[in-house]
Protein 1
Amino acid sequence: MTTAAAPLVSVLIPAYNHERFVERCLDSVLEDTYPAKEIVIIDDGSSDRTGERIAEWAARYRHQLRVEYVRHEENRGIAATLNELAARAHGEFLRLGASDDYLLPGGLAAQVNYLQAHPRKRAVIGDSIVVDQYGNKLHDSGMRDLHGADKGLYRTDEGIRRAVISQWAIGGPVALLRKSALETVDRWTEGLRIDDWDFFLRLAARDALGFIDMPVCAYRLHGNNVSKTRHTATRIVNLTESWQVARRRAEMFDEPYRSLLKAQSHYISAKVAFLQKRSILLGCHLLAYLSLLLASKVRLPPAGRLVEKT
């Protein structure tokens, strides 16, 4: 694919306190052979040397690709930063990045090719490998090995709805979306700490999400991953936010997926009750979860009979 024929991809990178990792992230964009790309990166109020690392890298490589770099003096949060990154992007396609992870060669071209071949889809996700803080590989598949997901579900619209609702298994920045998709899903919901589930639920509700079974990024596990915290109070806050997302987005789905998402909200509430050591409430939520899950599964098409749509 020549530069003239290739649509421009804007790689959006929200950066925060990742001075150890951000240069590897930026290098991976430069190293990918996809010919038409730009980097749009925001340092969202980092207190370490992340901003200096970005500025130094940009000064070295601006002659090789377009880099737009902005620094916030105060942290505004991931969703607000993503919305600003998207607004600043010039590309037809937006590749979501993360300053502690890095892209894998060939991922950009494969995802662009998928969206060009599937004009009804607004976004496509891939898989990831999982690495430690030093870059050593821990898992070949973030979806399967880290999250225990059945990747076969992601091959159909019905399966994607089921998977996004009940076994959200996206580790790392694995999505490419059409910039026009943001007109469909109203961008990222500002104020959320863990914003990706909310965003992809809205895409799945419209059958607008596709999947390619290849690793497109390296997802780095280290001590500061937001979604992997072991701090009980923080876990409760994150779970409560996820419960709110589930209840808010349930009405976007038809049955039986609406009931499946409501079941998931009770499962999340059961986790909160467990962390709070409220055994009676835990039992009530588990009972509600199982009841709604059973009701939804009765009406779900068997996985083997799902029909893939393009």
Protein 2
Amino acid sequence: MALGNPRFDPRQQQRGYQIRVNHRIRVPEVRVIGADGGMLGVLPTHEALRSALEQGLDLVEVNPKADPPVCKILDFGKYKYEEKKKQAQARRNQSVVEIKEIKLRPKTDDHDIAFKVKAARRFLDAGHKVKFTVRFRGREITHPEKAHEQLDVILKALDDVANIETRPMMEARAMSLVVAPKPALMQKVAQMRAAQERARQQAEKDGKSMPPAPSSIDLPEDADDDDGGDEDDGDSNEGGKAPN
């Protein structure tokens, strides 16, 4: 016995909006915009389609929600090409902010911290946020003040280029801090990207190839970040004799 509810058919996938063109436009009448941009008024759909085909063009629905729907006479192939160019342009102009993570250990020495601060400056100069993570092992977690001291040193070193976005906080066996580029620095990055886009467009116009963009800066994992073992640097007595 059939149930009242319709059976679910996995083949029936919801499809996004698709532009209707020519014979796919099935409403009886449409408001038509000519190829020159002038308004042709409300016409029976078959007349609008005949007019488009006589010009070697297409009838394209540009506003399906209007009453009646608005259609334009144009070259649909060229229209799709221009739309793709606009979307690509929008993606290039979009400001993408990444979060770069820099890892430390409570035993990371001053020299390594200075190296990591220098790397953080490069990330910030590129418009990225930076997350500093101090990871604890064994009994190191009983001395979180050491991580606080390291992060304070880092904050002072980056005070001219970064603002605190997330203050130091514990995450499981790690303490993290997130900083973001200052507004003036972000403005500088936006100007730099705009100049690069203008250069790219000029190179495209001149038929020249642009040099590849510089690759992202990757920090090598140093000995302090090695997860190969769980030694507690003498703080743990596992596998050894109890202290006297």
Protein 3
Amino acid sequence: MDTQTQTNQNADALVITDLHVAVEGKEILKGVNLTIRKGEVHAIMGPNGSGKSTLVNALMGHPRYEVTAGTATFKGEDVLTLPADERAHLGLFLAFQYPSAIPGVSVANFLRTAIVSLHRDRRKISDEELLSGETPVAPAKTPAATSKVPAIKEFRKTLRDSLALLKMDESFATRYVNDGFSGGEKKRLEILQMSVLKPQIAMLDEPDSGLDIDAVRIVAEGVSAVRGPNIGILIITHYQRILNYIKPDYVHILVGGQIVQSGGWELALKMEQQGYEWLRAELGLPEEVLAGESEVGNERA
């Protein structure tokens, strides 16, 4: 493939190059390279402490995760230089492993507010402009802001359609965000957000964590329903079981802060059958790396 063809293919791809990330002074990611294009589903597997959650949190701009080297570009932008809200505005989305509850805020109002924010012009007015009292010239809008904010009627239809697509009762929209939700309901709300907000690159941090097999199937069916040519999806998981329902195009094994093996869906099956020990023998990895590093704080690395 020539350089120009590769450049064109990566124009709307999230391209991660030699990414190094530290948490509380400890290096977790040690040079990750990965390209996610629209229409593709990637899965990252690996033992505890290997850096899976660190990767997606750093890409989304969590302040606890310090990028010490490397780049991550999307649509010509260096996303690592942007605050989290501007990364979302650009088209990135993160479904959390441990979603927070927001008592008093309904799911419908939460989603409506998020949509308005995504369509709003993100330009910040300088102190000089504020003090001068002059009205600044409206800047050119970013691609995500070119369309107008959907009308209430249009939003209701989108929400109803998404609820139906994910086989969720409409009463779900009136409940407070994650307040009293079961583990499965919290994960389904994350997928509902993805369906309504229509990101271009969606990262799912262990969507199967803490769920029984029936809940895993329901969440996986929701992801499969949203899957399509206009979205690239990255799934972080420990287990192959969710991949039985969401067959990924690519599977990557992250060990010791680096992707040490990549392949198709059959790689996930091999991991399920043989675990990680075969990697140590095949790649000459030290035993302590496969054992997993200690957790940093209260979150898995």
